[in-house]
Amino acid sequence: MAENQSISRTQWSSRQTTRLKWTTQMNSDLLECKVKAKEMVASQNPPRHENGRKKSYMAIMRELWSGRGYSDLGLSCQNLRDQAARLEKTFGNVQGTILKNTGVTKHRREFAYVLRTRRSKSPVLTPMDLNPCAHEILEGVTSILASISPIIGEFGRRNIDTRIKQRPTRTDVKNINAAIDVLMRREVEHSIDPTTNPFGYLWMANCILYSVVAAFLINKGWKKESGIKVQTKRKTSGQTMKEAFLTQATELRKRISIATAELDRIKKNKKITKRGKRNRAMLERESGKVSAASLVAYIERKKSELRRAKGGFIWKQKQEEIRSLNSKFYVDPSSVYDRFNEIIKSDPENNKPRYMKSTEAGSYWKDLWEQPSIATNSDATWLEDVRCVFAEFVPVPPQEDFELDPVKFAYVIKRKRNWSAPGPDRIVNFWWKRAESLHKGIAASFQAAVV
Predict the structure, then answer these.
(1) Helices (H), ranges, 223-357
(2) What DSSP string describes 382-406?
(3) Cα separation of 413 and 209, whole Å?
(4) Nearest CA to 335 among 345, 344, 325, 322?
(5) How far apart are CA 445 and CA 451, in angstroms?
């Protein structure tokens, strides 16, 4: 790298007519100089000229650029600004992308370097080293990662299922690992050492893996973002049955109300209204001649129909609940048992005793298990045989420190089934197997958590 840069500089200084070849290191240094120059200009004591006027960020950027050993190139402020603008257009905003990769301060850069050294000795990737497909994955990760990472242990916002029918290629897996490697170093809040904060590192790795996989699936068109596809929720048979019963019950209650009002008018010999005439005509069509006796019989008949409709609805509702529970039991028995447990807990007769203090519960078990017994003999010879059998099948865990081999750890992960049902994090084992950039860090986290 250094020899190529020196050769390009020599050629540029000897032949000014040739085009300068910008290397990856030169681009990275230029963007860092621009970020630092803007910070210096925005500070309370910005650099000034001899006449007291503030220096522009372009002039400061050129000074920083020359201070890094590029003064022999003889590039002007405008040349540097144009190159930085082209890089920003290609890789995004410097403040949002490059600053997060390199670190805002020297301490963050040193910490990121130490963390990378601990994780892997592989060459460090930067966003400029990634191909366009990996860049598209990184662009789609931002919104997903910001929505799922704030609360540790909260999986409710993960709307995309990582199970797929398609098969990603080796290049796709390589792009996913490259994006994960960049994100593990770029996110300042996720730059956690697995040896000092293992659980924070595991949560960070889980969120980043899900975000990268979700962005990859959306980019491939294998999954759609939540909210894009609007589906009308179909009515269940229970809802349709309930609506039909309510419609029938409303009509029957209306008939009963009309007949009751007409019966009251006849008994009190009141004047009939226009609405009363329309209602009386309807009653004549249904019950014949309208009289007090016929209206009483009509009301009782409609009440009987209402009771039969209500009884039929209750019976159908119970049958629908039974069918629903049976189908759920075949698909997911645990959900049915959970519902039964909720019913048992809601029953006041099954309330368990509650102890306000731990000593109360301890005294309860103490009375049961610490009663003296004459038949107890702790020195029986057969107990030694039982202890030996237990020691053979359940060995005593080692007390000294141990080192978890990342290779063996990765082998254990690869033995898992690819597409078995995922947990609440919605990440199937297939992606854990392919995320090789996370294996060493996860192994270190498990070792730190156990020790």
Answers:
(1) 237-268, 274-287, 292-331, 333-346
(2) HHHHHHHHHHHHSPPPP-S-----H
(3) 15
(4) 325
(5) 10
* Nearest-angstrom CA–CA distance, 402 and 398: 8
Q: What is the pLDDT along the chain (451 residues), one digit of tens a residue?
A: 444 455 445 444 444 556 777 888 888 888 888 888 888 888 878 888 888 788 888 888 888 888 888 878 888 888 888 888 877 766 555 445 444 444 444 444 443 444 444 444 444 445 546 778 888 888 888 888 888 887 888 888 888 889 998 989 999 999 999 889 888 877 645 567 787 888 888 888 899 999 999 999 998 889 887 654 445 567 778 888 899 999 999 999 999 999 999 999 999 998 999 999 999 999 999 888 889 999 999 999 999 999 999 999 999 999 998 888 888 888 888 888 888 888 888 877 777 767 667 777 777 777 777 666 656 666 677 778 888 888 888 767 666 766 777 788 888 888 888 888 888 889 999 999 989 888 888 888 888 877 6
- Residues 91, 127 contacting (CB under 8 angstroms): yes
DSSP for 28-42, written as a single string = HHHHHHHHHHHHHHH
Among 223, 216, 224, 219, which residue's Cα sits nearest to residue 435? Answer: 216
Listed in sequence order, the residues at least 6 apart from 1 whose beta carbon sits closer than 8 Å to its beta carbon are: 23, 25
Number of residues that make up the chain? 451
Burial status of residue 164 (CB atoms within 10 A of its CB: 0-12, 13-18, 19 or more): middle
CA dist., res. 337 & res. 430, Å (int): 30
Q: At 204, is the secondary structure helix, strand, or coil?
A: helix
Q: Which amino acid is at 371?
A: Q
The SS3 call for residue 105 is coil
Q: Is 182 exposed, middle or buried (0-12, 13-18, 19+ CB in 10 A)?
A: buried
Q: How far is 106 from 115, CA to CA, in rounded Å? A: 14
Cα–Cα distance measured from residue 311 to residue 321, given in angstroms and rounded to the nearest whole number: 15
Coil vs helix vs strand at 422: coil
Give the number of other Cβ atoms within 10 Å of residue 403's Cβ: 9
Helix, strand, or coil (residue 122): coil
